[in-house]
Amino acid sequence: MKIGLKSVGVMSLMGVAAYAGPITTVPWDGHPGAVSFTFDDCEISQLNNLGEYFDKNDDIKVTFFLTGGMNAGNQPKYFPMVAKGHEIGNHSKTHADLTNTNNLKGEVTDYKHDLEQRSGAEVISFATPYCYYNDAVEAEIAKEHIVNRNCQGATKYKWDEEPIWERISSDCYQGNTQQSKGNMSEAKQKNAWTVQLNHGVTGGGGYSISKNDMISIMDEAKAQGLWRAPMGRVAAYYRAHFVIDKATSTDIDGGFKVTWKSPHSAMPKSVPLRVKIEGADGKTVKQKGKEVKAESDGSFVIEFMDLELEVVGAAAAPESSSSSEAPTSSSEAPASSSVVASSDGKTPASSSEGTPTSSAEVTSSADAPASSVDAIAQNIHWASQTPTTFTVFSATGVLVKTFVAIPQSAEESFKALQVPHGTYYLKDLKSNYIKKVVK
Asked: Does the structure show a pLDDT above 50 at 6?
């Protein structure tokens, strides 16, 4: 393999500092960084020496860049790898110098279609032969591929810095296993993505790597907790993040709706995205009419390619919990005596459902039931200026924070805390009084 550059532009990154929408993508699918292992040229030693390892390590998925110019007869042996979660990428029809060809479309776009037809897989990634490229090559690649790999070294692509997608650089393995492990360690430190380029797995020197060294590097990626995913999978997730995190919401009855557009026509049909959704606490998240359940950590795995999401339904009151911190008895849980102070200073009443109403919905003392004696006592308490400790529970009864404030300004103090928008309950640990607030 010849390595060189023609008409190489300077790598530039666009910093993205903040997003306006309610959806925030969890970086690298919940990992501290990502690594993509790529293998070129249909060298069958890749499957012969690593196939068993891949089958036994389902958490390692890689990209095989196939070309008609080298070992093309081996291609059918790679196609079954797609069903196992690996990726087939486009490495051109003849492995030509693409900056010096009169058939650029045939080498790039037409060959993509050929690979897709024969393999039955989506081909969304490209790798430039010899790492030669210019503006015309990049333009042709960008028509029907979401990402291109070249080999100017192990760049660390940070989560909120959008790269040039046609110039994702990789480290071409040339016998330095410790360097490969160091690249991954640096990616983890920077919460970034790095790519490694491999050829034969024979240990024969040059661009080849031994079976044991390749396994050692992949095991190290697992030990570091990196996301070990194909190049196209990571690129799709990464590109989706720059779109969905900026998507704003529109109000709908009982909640809000977020819509967005795909960043590229060649995005795969499915792009699962792990996200946090502000304002979803106690509500129902839906895509195309189907409910999306929250994961154990409170995140949601949504389908980016649905291009829309709804958060609907009224927030539920906290449920009872066996935790010593959470409200456990009817006297502690938000009930008919749990109230929100009204804006006009009158005694608020309980809601008919037994949970406190919002400050915009409270009734006057004239409308309060006989049990409002408790409500009056609580209203006096919330006017107190004696500091006390409060716990904050989500609408589903999950302990969120603890803070100290005077009851009179507890709601304002709470809203200054760094918590997502939503419905919460403040509990005074001294009196057990509970107040519903909406941030």
From this structure: no
